[in-house]
Amino acid sequence: MEIFLGSMLLIVVLILIEIPVAFAFGIGAMLFTWATGNDVSFLIPHGFKTASSFALLALPLFIFAGLLMAEGGISERLLNFVNSLVGRVKGGLGAVTVLTCALFGAISGSSSAAIAAVGQIMIPKMVKEGYPPGHATALVACSSVLALLIPPSIPMIIFSITGGLSVGAAFLSTIVPGILLAVIYCLLNIWFVRDNPNIKVEPALPLKESVKLVAKTGRKAAFAVLMPLIILGAIYSGIATPTEAAAIAVIYAIPVGLFIYKGMSLNKLGAVTIRAVTMTGGIMAVLFFLFIMSRAMILEQIPKELATSLLQVSENKYVLLLLINVLLLLIGMIVDDISGSVLAAIIFLPVVTQLGIDPIHFAAVVGVNLGLGNVSPPCAPMLYMAGGVSKLSLDKYFLPTLKFLCFGHLPIVLIVTFIPQLSLFLPQLLLGY
């Protein structure tokens, strides 16, 4: 156990001094393997075998599909559609931001893609309409983590594959928490800006004109909204596996971007392909080393030792879940959502299974908790990315972020943790889980 803790500490230190994440995990994995006396030549084939699984092929395909739709002109059409629904009330523009991040997450499966696509449009727009810049930045950062919860979620794919769980069930487990979080963020945004006299509100339209505007923007955004429906419909109807659905998404996204929305050109298509390959390569390098480390940990019975250590603290599974939540929060604060998902599956999934906690319930706990960590200082990778878009210093958006997290995200973490049926309802209803 001491060797494992030392390896994890080394990985954290390397990440904090800005060593690339793949190299940090590689060094940590090799050190752990060497220190425990395991044969690297035995572990490397396991890493290759797991990384080359058919199910994991969904990862590059969903990344590619998300980038295609982001570059194909989808963001503005989604924004216009959501704005026609909720944009003409005080605080409505903030609600537009939250709901668009959720919709974009359902297309790209990536928090960083949601920040890049939605934040670049909505932060300047909110500031222009009178929202404080810090509030606008915090709202985009916090809303971006809805991409972890609204399927298809890339971190949930990784968590499921690493833990040997049903991808479809893991997808369904986070839908209700994701919807609840989106609703809470919309309400909090309206409450926080209710007394701000600087915020401009477009005058309400007569019912007939409002319906026409919704129909017009909805028609333009129809192909964007259809994409997640096609993906999830294919998976849950049994027509396609998640990997095959990801391939369908790519085939769908290319003609939509090129010929319907016309935001994509052949030059852009080439650039997007290179970006997708680069992103996938970086992620796969991290996953490869994590798979090696996970195998070595199993051989050394680290999960069993960890479970024994936790049971010495308390035998109450809810107390232990609360402790695990704290550890997940720390992981989310240090590493990105994908690395965090693998670590959660490697370290904690065997522990919670031994404690009698449903693995699909735990998948939802991991999703909401890593999202909280990704926007929680001091590390907060998604928070700093949003700050980079708005070009603000941390002190300008730290307090607004804290308010959203304490009154919005943290209660959802606790609700999902202590009410398992919230995350198990849909898998049981649709999959008979």
Number of separate domains? 1
Strand segment count: 0
**Rough shape?**
globular
Please work out how many helical segments DSSP would assign.
21
Beta strand %: under 5%
Average of the residue pLDDT scores: 83
Order of helices and strands: HHHHHHHHHHHHHHHHHHHHH
Low-confidence stretches: none
The biggest beta sheet reads:
none
Helix content: over 70%
Molecular structure report:
The chain has one domain (2-431). Helices cover 79% and strands 0% of the residues. The chain is globular, with a radius of gyration of 21 Å. The chain has helices at residues 2-16, 21-35, 40-51, 58-71, 74-86, 92-108, 111-128, 133-144, 154-163, 167-173, 175-192, 207-236, 242-260, 266-299, 302-313, 317-334, 337-354, 359-374, 381-390, 394-418, 421-431. With 433 residues, the protein is mainly alpha-helical. Helix 6 (92-108) packs parallel to helix 8 and helix 11 packs across helix 20 (394-418). It is built from 21 helices and no strands.
